[in-house]
């Protein structure tokens, strides 16, 4: 060993912070470090397998038996984990073990700071930071590694105590691969027991396809032997009739690090023009960063049982980003770049088929086990709504999956399907009515709903931010059109009694007087009998931008055209009857302005100038 080439480096600032958090905060499940190191070894072996098959010119073709080996040195209080995977170059050691290049690190650090201790271990493994979990149990971590393309006798040694610095030097290493030596803390001696190591591997790594061996030493015979611990067979390649429920659940835990069991899963082998196996899981809970712009998602991709990549997003649309699992194809060409893979006709066929399969799984669940489906919807409903706009080809089945709250449902929970809504429509009803608002309560208490409650017509209450955008794409269901109750519509007028036409004629002078006062502030003024307890409301014209859409544009910093509302007056309301009798023109004008302002306030939840509104109310109180 030559000390002259030894160099000391400072950890990237994010690594320092991460190491501090891991060592001092992530103590709820210390054993997770072993799972992470074995997973890294497994990935390294899968990579060398791939390289040897598809880039044979770069690597020697000696016989190769992949293995991960673990040995315990009780006397020196060390655990040694070694693999004969692809290894790392000198530059890769500095890049991979000294920095965190993966995006989202800051979000990760903020998240684990604000998370209960018992839940923090869930995040290890999700950000490419699994290696650093070694410092939870170790005082010093040493990494000996040599890249498979390195034909010299030298490799790299990386050493750190996890306190801000690490050293890197060139050392003699015969074979390619990586060996990690953990010098355990005095408080972590339990991990020096073989039975404990076996227990952890059975729990977390039983389905890894590479054999994991542990060193046994017979005190009597002084003989060292290696014992295989894990099953070492890819679960998806087995006949699904021979796989237990527990095995499926264990494999899900292994590939996702999720502490909860999956909600449902589907395992299929497809033969014919395209041959592939897929094992797909629907989680019970959402990943914490599901709404993060840089959220990593997708399936694990294997081709002919050779691992290709994590998070292969090409096989699922974005609105199904919560789905976990693997796809193992026999048809994808491997000597191509990922960009070409994205454009492959086989990839497009697989994406289309997998999307339809997942939607069918969810649709079947909604029919066969509504209680279980409701649990799914409560967690992932917002994501499914994205599919209405993103996936026109499957819009019909996605619409079947949607759930809503409504005025007749008497529950904030979104549990009403469109099929149930249309099955219960009254005979005179020709459209599916809905209202969009900022919250469930504001939607439920909107004056627009008064006639619907009176006529026993159900209205869908949409209060998620995505709803207004979604309804621009969801125009009908089973040939029945949707209609916003806050927009002008002839079908609604037909539901309202027309016995008041004579009264309308008598009120024409009153309406004309209002129009002259409001002028270009409104698009129109008219009488309505859709209101019961409210003197007036405003609507948008059928072709104009809705109030909710204007709010979305405004929140996004987009310019919006000024909305000119239609003011509808309820002639039966006591306040309207009182205003009609007002003779003083100034007082009458104030009342009309007040009607418009309070109607806009009820519709938008805000006014451009609330001070004028308050002054107007005060002036009318004084009169």
From TrEMBL:
Intracellular or extracellular location(s): Cytoplasm
InterPro entries assigned to the protein according to its UniProt record, in alphabetical order: HATPase_C_sf, Heat_shock_protein_90_CS, HSP90_C, Hsp90_fam, Hsp90_N, Ribosomal_Su5_D2-typ_SF
Region (C) location: 552-623
GO cellular component term, pick one: cytoplasm
Its biological purpose: Molecular chaperone. Has ATPase activity.
HAMAP family: HSP90
Name under which the protein is recorded: Chaperone protein HtpG
Originating species: Buchnera aphidicola (Cinara kochiana kochiana)
Gene behind the chain: htpG
């Amino acid at each position: 060993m030559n000390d002259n080439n030894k160099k000391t480096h400072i950890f990237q600032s994010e690594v320092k912070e991460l190491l501090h958090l891991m060592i001092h905060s992530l103590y709820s499940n210390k054993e997770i470090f072993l799972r992470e190191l074995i997973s890294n070894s497994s990935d390294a072996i899968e990579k060398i397998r791939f390289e040897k098959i598809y880039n044979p010119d770069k690597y020697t073709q000696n016989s190769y038996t992949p293995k991960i080996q673990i040995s315990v040195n009780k006397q020196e209080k060390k655990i040694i984990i070694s693999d004969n995977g692809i290894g790392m170059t000198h530059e890769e050691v500095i890049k991979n073990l000294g920095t965190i290049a993966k995006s989202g690190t800051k979000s990760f650090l903020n998240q684990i700071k604000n998370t209960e201790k018992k839940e923090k271990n869930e995040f290890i493994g999700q950000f490419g930071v699994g290696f650093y979990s070694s410092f939870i149990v170790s005082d010093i971590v040493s990494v000996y590694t040599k890249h498979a393309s390195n034909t010299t006798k030298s490799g790299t040694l990386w050493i750190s105590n996890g306190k801000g610095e690490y050293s890197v030097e060139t050392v003699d290493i015969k074979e390619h691969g990586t060996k990690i030596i953990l010098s355990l803390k005095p408080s972590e001696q339990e991990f020096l027991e073989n039975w404990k190591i076996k227990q952890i591997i059975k729990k977390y790594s039983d389905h890894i396809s590479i054999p994991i061996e542990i060193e046994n030493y017979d005190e009597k015979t002084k003989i060292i032997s290696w014992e295989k611990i894990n099953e070492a067979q890819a679960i998806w390649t087995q006949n699904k009739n021979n796989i237990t429920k527990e095995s499926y659940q264990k494999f899900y835990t292994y590939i996702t690090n999720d502490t909860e069991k999956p909600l449902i899963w589907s395992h299929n082998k497809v033969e014919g023009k395209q041959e592939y196996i897929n094992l797909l899981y629907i989680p019970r809970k959402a990943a914490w960063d599901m709404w993060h712009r840089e959220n990593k998602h997708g399936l694990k991709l294997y081709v002919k049982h050779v691992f290709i990549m994590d998070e292969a997003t090409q096989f699922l649309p974005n609105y199904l980003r919560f789905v976990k699992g693997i796809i193992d194809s026999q048809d994808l060409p491997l000597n191509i770049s990922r960009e070409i893979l994205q454009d492959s006709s086989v990839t497009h066929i697989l994406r289309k088929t997998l999307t339809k399969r997942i939607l069918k799984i969810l649709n079947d669940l909604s029919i066969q086990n509504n209680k279980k489906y409701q649990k799914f919807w409560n967690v992932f409903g917002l994501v499914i709504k994205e599919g209405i706009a993103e996936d026109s080809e499957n819009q019909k089945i996605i619409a079947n999956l949607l759930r809503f709250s409504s005025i007749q449902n008497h529950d904030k929970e979104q549990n009403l399907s469109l099929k149930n809504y249309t099955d219960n429509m009254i005979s005179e009803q020709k459209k599916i009515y809905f209202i969009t608002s900022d919250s469930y309560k504001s939607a439920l208490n909107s004056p627009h709903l008064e006639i619907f409650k009176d006529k026993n017509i159900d209205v869908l209450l949409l209060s998620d931010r995505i709803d207004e955008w979604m309804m621009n794409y969801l125009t009908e269901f089973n040939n029945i059109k949707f209609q916003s109750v806050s927009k002008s519509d002839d079908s609604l007028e037909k539901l309202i009694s027309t016995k008041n036409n004579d009264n309308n004629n008598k009120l024409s002078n009153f309406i004309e007087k209002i129009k002259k006062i409001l002028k270009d502030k409104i698009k129109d003024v008219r009488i309505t009998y859709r209101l019961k307890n409210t003197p007036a409301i405003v609507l948008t014209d059928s072709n104009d931008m809705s109030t909710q859409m204007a709010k979305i544009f405004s929140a996004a910093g987009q310019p919006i055209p000024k909305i000119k509302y239609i003011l509808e007056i309820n002639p039966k309301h006591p306040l309207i009857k009182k205003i009609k009798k007002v003779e003083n023109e100034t007082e009458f004008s104030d009342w009309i302005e007040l009607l418009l302002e309070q109607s806009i306030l009820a519709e938008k939840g805000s006014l451009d100038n609330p001070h004028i509104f308050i002054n107007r109310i005060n002036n009318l109180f004084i009169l």
